Each structure stands twice: as structure tokens, then as C-alpha cells.
């Protein structure tokens, strides 16, 4: 009895010590929008916030990315602005960067450049140390954010349980699926233009981008009835480096529609099916199912004159430096065809049907179907390797083959409560002996 109590007390002391010395880092798990570099003094680290802005007055989608990069040899802050096939990279000393510890608020070069949920203020002119040819002045107000609620305190942010892992190569968080933006923009000292439109906001931090990934986002739609609030879509598929030189498939797919957030994430044991990518035409197509097999989301690109679609090259963290290697498509001739359905299990099956769903007695009920415009797409790295890995793991991983596992996931709260109840009852019985 004494030994068991000693072990419990010893473990409790370790937990308390860990929480005490890592309080600041753990607090950021619940506030992933804030700057993570305050407690990092050496090694490689990067962090960047990605603003995507679509204005009715302009024919271009503009992205603005403030951030920092640090290594043992160099450290600096930067702001990147891109549209169409043009990018501008402004570099300043690291000391010009400042951020709040209590909220998402970043300033660069005093108050000349301010980035937050409410404001986006930019005053940048190219210098000899910049990879930039244009000057920018922006004074924008952001409002009416559509944020993603946490699943639970155990699974905060977009990354869920992986938010607790301090060794992740690249962390990702969606700050706002959609927001309204208005204000003024001046490019190259031309006349200031009043603008208003729609935006998207996310961020990354860690020590490097993955070696291969596919990413896409859209929150504006063609021919959407005025009675329907515009849905929002975000997806990211990558190979995540793991221990023992392993690379595991990890994906995040979020679709917000009619005030409901549909999550299809690898940490929720969702399934990717029929992934195809054509890098020549930038065609992407895949379907994703939730683990409870209640919903299916199908996404595919549609492109007008897709071959050799112009893209813009952006800087991104690779190894211990910032390289210009990230290819992003911002042109307006590429779209996402999106279809969300509810899966209904029927009493009858049809083994002769080519559709696997029908073979196993499922039918689909349409929830939403539409075409997203003014989207952004990234296809980077060894895509054939990514497709091969995803197909190897998910090709035969159909939900009807794992009904017991699906039930555990679907009723995890009941399972956890039952386990906790058994532990409490056993503890009471031992005490009463």
C-alpha cells in the first residue's frame, strides 16, 4: 500500500512540476492565435499569419503574411504580399517585431504595420535588402469573424490533440474561416482605393514546412441563393514526419455550412478516398468521410483553361532558412466543386452495383452542393509519393470493416465515463476494506 501511494505522489509531483515550468507554453495550447516564440531562445523557429483578401473593387486576390524566422545564424521579421503571379517580400530586423502575450496583436516597425483580428495596417516600401518591387499602404478593418469552436479542452484549436505535442514540424491553426473587410489600399503610390470584401485568416508555426502538401481554401460561391449564408471550406493534406524516420499522412478538412462545422480530420479517424491530383492541370479530387460514417464531403477542382495556370512563388521555411519555393495559385479561373451529403443506411444492399456505398446498403442525401470561386490552392512537393501513401493506407479502410472501432469513437464519452466510474468504484471498495 505504501509503495502504491508513493508512486501516486511521485507522479503527481512530476505533473505539477511540468505544469509549473511550462505554464506559458501550455497556455498557448488554448490560444494558438498568439505568438509562440517568446519562450524560444535558440534553434530554428518560424511563425506566420496568412491573411487572404478578396475585394469586389479589384480583379485580384491579395494575400498578406507577416511573420518571423529564427535560426542560430540569422533572425528577422518579414511581411509578404502577393497577388496574381507577383510576390513582394519585405525583410526587417527581428527587433522590429513585437507581439502581445495576452491577445493576437502583432506590430512590425513600431505601429506602421499592425496585424490583429480587428485591424490590418500596412506601410511598406521596398529597400535593397527586400525581394520586392512595389510599395503598399493598407488601412483595413476586419469584422464578423467565423471561428471554429474547440471540440473540447483535450482537443483545442484546429490541430486537436496534436496541439499538445511540442515536437511537431509544422503546426496549423485556422483563426477565421470568413470575415468582412473594408478600408483603403494604395499600391505604388497610386490613388488610394476604397475597398470592401471577404477574408480568410490562418497561421503556421514550427521549424519547417512539410516536404509535400496540398492545401486549399474558399468562402465565396457562384449562384448562391441570398437566403443562404456563404459556406466556408478549408483543406490540407500532407505527409507528417514522425519518429523512426516515418512519414504519416495527416489531413485537416473543415466545412462550415448553415452555422454548423463539419470536421473531417485524421485525428478524428476520418477517411480519405479516391485521391487524385494532376499537377499539369492543377486538378484535385477526393472524398472524405467522418468516422461515424454520417457525412461525406466530395471536393474537386474545376478550371477554365487550366494548363500552365500562372501561380505565384512565396517564401516558406525549409530546413534552417526561408526559401522561395511555395507555389500558390490565386488566379480566378480555378474553382472548387463541393458536395456535402448525409449517409443513410438502408435495409437492402446491391452487391452488383459498382458504387461501394450502394453495395453496403448506403444512400446519400444532399445537404449542400455548390461551386466556390476566388479560391486559393497550393500543390507542393513530391505529390505522387503523397498519393501513393494515402492510397496504401486508406484504399481498403472502409468504415463498414471497422464497425466496432466506429462505435467506440461515436460513444467515446460514455466509454470514458464508464472507465472513470470503474476506477472510482474500485478506489472506494479498497478504502472500505
Q: What would you note in describing this structure?
A:
The chain is an alpha+beta fold and about 425 residues long. The chain is about 15% helix and about 45% strand. The chain contains six helices and 24 strands. The protein has helices at about 1-20, 25-30, 355-360, 385-395, 405-410, 410-430, and strands at about 45-55, 60-70, 75-85, 85-95, 95-100, 105-110, 115, 120-125, 135-145, 170-185, 195-205, 215-220, 220, 230-240, 245-255, 260-265, 270-280, 285-290, 295-305, 310-320, 320-330, 335-345, 360-375, 375-380. The strands form three sheets. It has an eleven-stranded antiparallel sheet, with no helix packed on it. A seven-stranded antiparallel sheet has the order 16-15-14-12-24-21-20, with helices on one face. A six-stranded antiparallel sheet has the order 13-23-22-19-18-17. The longest helix is centred in the C-terminal third of the chain and has 21 residues, at about 410-430. It is globular, with a radius of gyration of 24 Å. The two termini are about 15 Å apart.
Amino acid at each position: 500500500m505504501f509503495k502504491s501511494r508513493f508512486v501516486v505522489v511521485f507522479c503527481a509531483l512530476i505533473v505539477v512540476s511540468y505544469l509549473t515550468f511550462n505554464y506559458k507554453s501550455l497556455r498557448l495550447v488554448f490560444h494558438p492565435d498568439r505568438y509562440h516564440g517568446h519562450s524560444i531562445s535558440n534553434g530554428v523557429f518560424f511563425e506566420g499569419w496568412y491573411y487572404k483578401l478578396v475585394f469586389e473593387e479589384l480583379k485580384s486576390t491579395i494575400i498578406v503574411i507577416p511573420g518571423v524566422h529564427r535560426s542560430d545564424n540569422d533572425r528577422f521579421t518579414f511581411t509578404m504580399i502577393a497577388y496574381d503571379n507577383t510576390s513582394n517580400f519585405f525583410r526587417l530586423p527581428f527587433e522590429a517585431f513585437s507581439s502581445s502575450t495576452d491577445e493576437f496583436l502583432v506590430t512590425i516597425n513600431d505601429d506602421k504595420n499592425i496585424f490583429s483580428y480587428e485591424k490590418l495596417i500596412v506601410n511598406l516600401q521596398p529597400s535593397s535588402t527586400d525581394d520586392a518591387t512595389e510599395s503598399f499602404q493598407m488601412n483595413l478593418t476586419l469584422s464578423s469573424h467565423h471561428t471554429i469552436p474547440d471540440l473540447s479542452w483535450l482537443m483545442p484549436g484546429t490541430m486537436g490533440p496534436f496541439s499538445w505535442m511540442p515536437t511537431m514540424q509544422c503546426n496549423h491553426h485556422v483563426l477565421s474561416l470568413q470575415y468582412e473587410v473594408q478600408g483603403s489600399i494604395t499600391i505604388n503610390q497610386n490613388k488610394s482605393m476604397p475597398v470592401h470584401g471577404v477574408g480568410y485568416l490562418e497561421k503556421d508555426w514550427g521549424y519547417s514546412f512539410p516536404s509535400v502538401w496540398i492545401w486549399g481554401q474558399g468562402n465565396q460561391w457562384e449562384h448562391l441563393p441570398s437566403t443562404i449564408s456563404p459556406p466556408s471550406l478549408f483543406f490540407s493534406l500532407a505527409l507528417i514526419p514522425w519518429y523512426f524516420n516515418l512519414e504519416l499522412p495527416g489531413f485537416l478538412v473543415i466545412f462550415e455550412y448553415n452555422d454548423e462545422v463539419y470536421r473531417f480530420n485524421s485525428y478524428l479517424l476520418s477517411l480519405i478516398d479516391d485521391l487524385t491530383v494532376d499537377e499539369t492541370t492543377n486538378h484535385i479530387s477526393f472524398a472524405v468521410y467522418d468516422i461515424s460514417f454520417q457525412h461525406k464531403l466530395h471536393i474537386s477542382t474545376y478550371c477554365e483553361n487550366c494548363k500552365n495556370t500562372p501561380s505565384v512563388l512565396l517564401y516558406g521555411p525549409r530546413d534552417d532558412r526561408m526559401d522561395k519555393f511555395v507555389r500558390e495559385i490565386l488566379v480566378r479561373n480555378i474553382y472548387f466543386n463541393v458536395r456535402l451529403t448525409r449517409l443513410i443506411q438502408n435495409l437492402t444492399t446491391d452487391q452488383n452495383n459498382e458504387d461501394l456505398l450502394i453495395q453496403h446498403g448506403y444512400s446519400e442525401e444532399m445537404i449542400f452542393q455548390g461551386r466556390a470561386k476566388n479560391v486559393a490552392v497550393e500543390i507542393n512537393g513530391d505529390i505522387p509519393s503523397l498519393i501513393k501513401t494515402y492510397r496504401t493506407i486508406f484504399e481498403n479502410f472502409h468504415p463498414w470493416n471497422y464497425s466496432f472501432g466506429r462505435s467506440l469513437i461515436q460513444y467515446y464519452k460514455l466509454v470514458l465515463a464508464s472507465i472513470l466510474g470503474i476506477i472510482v468504484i474500485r478506489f472506494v471498495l479498497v478504502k472500505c476494506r
